[in-house]
Amino acid sequence: MKQFEFFVLRYVPDAVKHECVNFGIAMYETGATVNGFAGVQAARDWRRVRCLDPQADTEMLAAIVADIRQCLVDPAQKDAMLKRLIDSFSNLIEVSPTKGLLAEDGERELRALSTMYLESAIPLLRLPTRGRVAILAQMIDEFERRAILKLLLRDIPIATYTRPGDPMKLDFGYGEGNEFKFLHALSLQSRVDQAVMLAARFPAIASGVKAKNGAEAKLTAVVEDDFDRTREEVGFALNMMEENRIRVATTRELPSIAEEIRLELRA
């Protein structure tokens, strides 16, 4: 039996509420040379993280885990690495107290710990299957799958193009040629107020983009596949968006939209 220590990495998006979710685990052999076992495991499924924060930057979290993996190869770097991690991401990342254990095989024990800490079922914390949050989660998943999420601007403040204090933000955006293209999740399942407001405001937003950046603004609103097109208020919202040159796409079209973006960004 060999002596090991391990610690858990926790994502804490809101320092006030201090709600957190585990996203990584690191384990290393104590009192060993540089040839001793050291391993790190990230969450294989990021749905637990997105249950807590649908807009979590999972690529950043995965990069943190990869950085720890490199540092743990040399036990002498461990303490300095942990201090740097805590200092750099103190508002988002929390490191659990270190715990000791005895095991014969480090790799096998790390897999067991990963199952215990990173993959336990959370039946009461599931991503919504409907509404704007669900649409946004699907967009993030598809953009990650095409490796373009990190190339997109996120939560773009519209005050940049209108006036200070404007609270509106659009989910994603990127520049392509002489155009700037926005993408925004929008639900038409219940109320259509947000769709109507977005349609009414987009001409002014486009004018602001033109004045500030000299670019033509384009906007794609991503909606559910199964919204009720027979409702009069839905028809009104769709007509308003069409009149104001907002492209409306459903979540079923996300793969082709993501591929279109990938080609435009040459990713």
Structure description:
The chain is of the alpha+beta class and 267 residues long. The protein folds into two domains: 2-118, no CATH class; 131-264, Trna Endonuclease, Chain: A, domain 1. 39% of the residues lie in helices and 26% in strands. It has eight helices and ten strands. The strands form two sheets. Strands 1, 2, 3, 4 and 5 form a five-stranded antiparallel sheet that branches. The chain has a five-stranded mixed sheet with strand order 6-7-8-9-10. A hairpin with a 2-residue loop joins strand 7 and strand 8 (179-185). The protein is elongated. The N and C termini lie far apart (48 Å).
SS content category:
alpha+beta
What is the architecture of the largest domain at the second tier of CATH? 3-Layer(aba) Sandwich
Which residues form runs of ≥5 with pLDDT under 50? Answer: none
- The sequence of SSEs as H and E is EEEHHHEEHHEEEHEHEH
Please give the domain count. 2
Task: Please identify the oligomeric state.
Answer: single chain
Could you tell me the strand content as a percent range? 25-35%
The CATH first-level class of the largest domain comes to Alpha Beta
Notable characteristics:
five-stranded mixed β-sheet, 2 domains, five-stranded antiparallel β-sheet, 267 residues, alpha+beta
